[in-house]
Automatic annotation (TrEMBL), chains A, B, C, D:
Post-translational modification: Carbamylation allows a single lysine to coordinate two divalent metal cations.
Protein name per the record: D-hydantoinase
Keyword hit for Metal-binding: yes
InterPro entries linked to this entry: Amidohydro-rel, Hydantoinase/dihydroPyrase, Metal-dep_hydrolase_composite, Metal_Hydrolase, Metallo-dep_Hydrolases_sf
Cofactor(s) of this protein: Zn(2+)
CDD domains membership: D-HYD
One family name in Pfam for this protein: Amidohydro_1
Length: 462, 462, 462, 462
């Protein structure tokens, strides 16, 4: 079964070329000059006037994630179908170690959740909540099992929180085994005190979520994580960076050549504390951690994407319905489940950066696909249109328009954080490992197509 | 005429893939999975065990350049043949406006020198020595003529030097027409005073060249150029950065997202002031500006290449023979012609950084080919192995070894700055626009094959 | 003749004490606990409820200064009388070397202007406009003559401007002889180009003075001066710092322990580019260089005073009448004489910083008196209330109020830059070398009382 | 009872004057020009050729401090007598809250220890080990009781350690009541992990104390404390700063005008990790926290003293005998009591900085006396030679020499950290509140003379 994608402009992280792409089975067989293919093709996709780019890689999602007695509402099936609709063909989700359990049994559990249910390929990061001798040894086994990125939390005391000593130990292990430590960098100990003060003073509305998590405490934790990484020699990847203070710390470390990397998310680029302050508890829709910030942070984040101090855009997709889930926090913002939906809109939203002059076309491809592929050990299988690579391909129509809405999105959640937002550009066709899963006539993929990706190590390490 | 390069590992700035490359005429027709090409090929090159990468682009050479009454000794013919031997398939040389002459007539003159004489493709930057209303208008015409990078000098008063006011005017013009200002950033006014003091005190040996050009004065000029660029909004490219102080200025500007870029050269990575201090006037071989620095700068420069605060490695190839040319400065270091040979060894020398763990393979390709292609508006025609691109291809043997020597090099100069240096890796085969110019049996190219490259604008501008 | 100042609060740069001050002749004989003086006094001044502090030292004035065919309108007599009214008992004025003349003859000329005419003590800085072998040697002689601070200009090409090479030479000399280089740090070469462009485009109004002198060009020159000082090892004092960019450069240098110091002036703390933009040519009243800046610079300058990155407040008093002098620039802002009146109001204006919580009382004394005394080699003769010190004493009433106006000021100029400004605090009594020159009943001093101060070297050098 | 100190050079933090000092009872009555005193004196001290300066203020001592089952060996009596011998006339010691006890009862207990036992005046800081609602309220009461500086620990988990949440709460309280938070800034959580690893690997010798407390973890904690102070608005004083990384954080914060201050100690200026590595367990003598650092930190600390990023030199005097106390840690460095003797030698040691060109005379006075007086709310009662001030006076002989040794020192400890060190300068005469306690004939003071100092608030707050 072969497919020829003809007439398009093939994008990479370095630029664009007019070229045709030949897919044979699950992989790309060749990239040729226009009309340069000497062989036959079973199917021809006309990409005239369109961009042909590697499918998006969302390095940060939470499907079916337990949180505070409830769980995020997208299953691996619904979440990956939504991702595919948005041009994302790979997600890396987080397996979540519960205190007292082992990493490998956790990984088994997450395999059970995902296996046979995903519409696109997927990998796992491992959230390490419980650092001990056993866990540390298991980190090596996780790496053998294709999971070499270990997320830790400086926030959420009593839940995911690790002490600086535990972080140090995990970093030492990562230094030895080639893993990368991912960090939720907020000073949760200080934040919990501010939260308690707010509640005791009757400040209970959603905007307090942001007011009790000041950006300085994200900057602080980022600095601390960087120093611990320096002491141990471990690679460090800061997840969901939202604050200019944290960005400044990352930039300073990167200037010294330290293996420090960071991602941001669309919500920090497009939304702000003003959304959290919406009346009638609507602000709850925007509760995630770190919180949405003052608008002054947004241009700094776009700048960070340009300077590569922010290397990746992920979504931190973690959807909770407004009804019954977000509503758990009426009268107590600290009980609002933390998380926002977004896996479907990342490619489109960041493309708005191209439209608005914030990013180049090639940088769009880089931050949404090529860099996550390299960072998470998937390149060149993913993240590039190249012979031998998986045929995860997005044909994107740069001239189409669309309006985001919960009415039309495919995520299993009852609201959109971007309701009514008008966008330029739209997904035209999506291939996942050689199969056309989305095209103008609808969705042709489904659960079970997606396979687990055993990942190699971070390719950016100095 | 088609060529199939089979069995190799194709390198790009993002990684490597096992792939075959199909060349048809002057261009790459296709890149396919191993054995994936469905058509025929007239010639097959076996690249098994070898790297297949885009030919090197040396963005800074001076062939036949007049300097202080003499001229650099490589002609466009000898210099480009030497480049080809070293795996470089494009050079961007500098047309040099003499005071009082026009830019366009200068360009004509350089076309005359180069046309029909080059063995590989070439482009021009324009050295602007004389800023006036006429020159500024001509900058626009230069851009139309494919020359959009304008080098200015903060050094060499009375020769190439421009005042800050002249630089400001040229930058304003570049801001308007899309050009990029290239800067030789040393405070030549202060340096000339130090030189005069040295001579008047009888300090005349070659090492005084470095002692009278302290790194702080490169850092200073770099800062000044950056501020003038900020005031005017012009893109700025710092040539031949040699000092950590200058690097720090570039890094600080880049952190703010300003369009500031920099290159360094192999001599600053591998040689030092100790070479300048060699006895018997041998130090004269190493006189170039900025001067070779203390060794402590070298690890900072490698780090800058990793952090991308240094984006490009060029050679500043400007060879003068030791006999009769360098010797002009016996008894007065200020009369030693400034410049060193190097165009032939850039790919090999920077590959030593890969061998030594300083750079990744993909970064080697990036700093020597892909980034210069993008920076100088040649991408994707050059700088990448992609369909439609010129078939400028380097097949590199990573396991071979070689020893550098004036006895064996192809540059038209009577010494090597790296005499006796033992290297790992060696050029195997070189294609220039589809023609095999170097292979195991010798050199098959020659003058006249190389064509002028009318260049697009810098592709890195924010 | 002895005076006892009783009942006041004596201020120093470190705090305040309730104490009595005994003056005998021209000097302070003793400072005692309240009522602690065992001897007699001819006169008793009741300072109850008032501050007793060292008389102000204005380290930057221009009396009778030639500028562009005219001259500043305060003579040494009128200017020093105005200073005394404002609580300033020492000025350090600038002798101005004309191109082609010698430093010592210049100094003679300024002695002639000042001798016998000043109402308070005075010293000189030397403006070096013409650097050559002779001048450099004369710098040593100036130091012997009590003038060890040498001002140079990076602005005003063709007038006061020195090249970086000339600055380097002067700095080398200062490094050797203990002098301090004072710098007007603006990139005048670039500025002159911007000025020419403005005029050629018909932008001629006073606000263009600021728009053609962007703060980046003050930051740039400040950085450059600091680097030249670093290369030479010379102490550097940045005069009339106005821009946050320049302040950042000074702060960075000071963090490294380099001998770099800076002053700002009241006009940069209280006035802004909005004043320059006043209609009907009124903006001309506010033309000085560096220009008044956007208001956002003001809080940064106050902060610099708190952090001691700005160590001194001087006035750069250089008054030109609006009528006939400022008016020379109608239709061409570049012809407006550069300078503003201010010598009379410095103590009062900076005291407003105390009132407004910007500075502590002790910091007020420090930046207006103690630090200039130490910086300019006058301490402990001046700048402190201590036994043996000159009895230059200001009794200040912190509760009085006043309104500034050209109607009431004593400067010989037809406008006030602070017309109508209401202040808290007022000069009560002023002693100059033991003589009461100002008290509630009026002015009792006069020309001839002030003596030339042969100054020691800068006391802050590391 | 009056004393006249005649013929000396009186030093202050701004310079020196030839002056006589008149003491009446416990206070300074007058400072006069030489021979300027009109009254009589009971006693005359000849200070010809000597410096007369305010007695030293050691803002950081631990007399009789419980630590790990033992206690520091100097009692308030022996420790203050030793201090007096070294020219220090005020100490501020630390009351140590035990977990579960109250601040006020702690203060009572420390008053009991000290009252009637001290030879010189003394104050208290309060170590807050147990933050809770009651403690926070007590902080206000402590301030009323003259104790407004609250030390907290980011090190020593399980002992003095406070969490970031507890620190935040205490800082909020300090923001409200005017107190200053003093911080032991080392990341004790991470350090304890490194210590455990060292012990488990059999690395037990004293030098491991330093190796398990890397300077990055002092820099980290310093940054964290500064951010918490920024979030809360509290003044912050970093105690015993030892590492250049921590200094850089303090300097950066101070550049922004934040109320951040720091002290260092003589041991960090003169001793190094090489002392900790001395064989035969002798390194144990030098175990204190933070640990002695590599020598490369020393010039940075001296520079910090010059730039005022380090404002104070205290001793952290906390002596444990080598025999039986330090020896508790044979075979386990973590059991070595943390602390070194030093209260006696601070004035002499820092004077070596004057001798060696590191500090000016006035800076010597400033960092050892005037600044601690202002920082700890004792000025002008202490820290200056001024009328009305306590007659705490040090007459210092700059030309005498001495050799430090346990044989001759007055501290109650069996070793000297500076054994055999030869110094220039020596204490001549010491007055404590008007009483000559040390002179050439010996010690004339004794327990009971020293009084508790109820301190005002920090006088440096912006
Ligand atoms: Zn997440
Ligand atoms: Zn150059
Ligand atoms: Zn950077
Ligand atoms: Zn060059
Ligand atoms: Zn600073
Ligand atoms: Zn001036
Ligand atoms: Zn401590
Ligand atoms: Zn302590």
């Amino acid at each position: 079964m072969s497919i020829l994608i003809k007439g398009g402009t093939v994008l990479s992280s370095t630029g664009s070329v007019r070229a045709d792409v030949v897919v044979e089975g699950e992989r790309i067989l060749a990239v040729t000059a226009p009309d340069g293919w000497a062989g036959q093709a079973d199917t021809v996709i006309d990409a005239t006037g369109k961009y042909v780019l590697p499918g998006g890689i969302d390095g940060h999602t939470h499907m079916e994630m337990p949180f505070g007695g409830t769980a995020s509402v997208d299953t691996f099936e619904t979440g990956t179908i939504a991702a595919a609709h948005g041009g994302t063909t790979t997600v890396v989700d987080f397996a979540v170690q519960a205190k007292g359990s082992s990493l490998l049994s956790t990984l088994d559990k997450w395999h059970e959740k995902a296996d046979g249910n995903c519409a696109i390929d997927y990998g796992f990061h491992m959230i390490v909540s419980d650092v001990n001798d056993g866990t540390l040894k298991e980190m090596d086994a996780c790496i053998d099992a294709g999971v070499n990125t270990f997320k830790m939390f400086m926030a959420y005391p009593g839940v995911f929180y690790s002490t600086d000593g535990e972080i140090l130990r995990a970093m030492q292990r990562a230094r030895g085994n080639g893993g990368t430590i991912m960090m939720h960098a907020e000073n949760g100990i200080a934040i919990d005190e501010l939260v308690a003060q707010a509640l005791s003073e009757g400040r209970t509305e959603p905007v307090q979520h942001a007011l009790t998590r000041p950006p300085e405490l994200e900057g602080e934790a980022t600095h601390r994580a960087i120093q611990l990484a320096k002491v141990t020699g471990a690679p460090l990847y800061i997840v969901h960076l939202s604050a200019m203070q944290a960005l400044a710390e990352v930039a300073a470390a990167r200037d010294t050549g330290q293996n420090v990397f960071a991602e941001t998310c669309p919500q920090y680029l497009f939304l702000s504390i003003e959304d959290l302050a919406k009346p009638e508890f609507e602000g709850a829709k925007f509760v995630a951690s770190p919180p949405l910030r003052d608008k002054e942070h947004q241009p700094k984040l776009w700048q960070g994407l340009r300077t590569n101090d922010l290397s990746v855009v992920s979504t931190d997709h973690c959807p909770f319905c407004f009804v019954e889930q977000k509503e758990l926090g009426r009268g107590d913002f600290s009980k609002i489940p933390n998380g926002m939906p977004g896996v479907e809109h990342r490619m489109d939203l960041i493309y708005q950066g191209v439209v608005g002059g914030e990013l180049s076309l090639s940088r769009w491809v880089e931050v949404t696909s090529t860099t996550p592929a390299r960072m998470f050990g998937l390149y060149p299988r993913k993240g590039v249109i190249a012979p031998g690579s998986d045929a995860d391909i997005l044909v994107y129509d740069p001239e189409a328009t669309q309006v985001l809405s919960a009415e039309t999105h495919h995520m299993n959640v009852d609201y959109s954080a971007y309701e009514g937002m008008r966008l330029k550009g739209r997904v035209d066709t999506v291939l996942s490992r050689g199969r056309v899963v989305v095209d103008g006539s609808g969705f042709h993929g489904g659960r079970g197509h997606g396979r687990f990706l055993s990942r190699e190590l971070n390719q950016y390490l100095n």
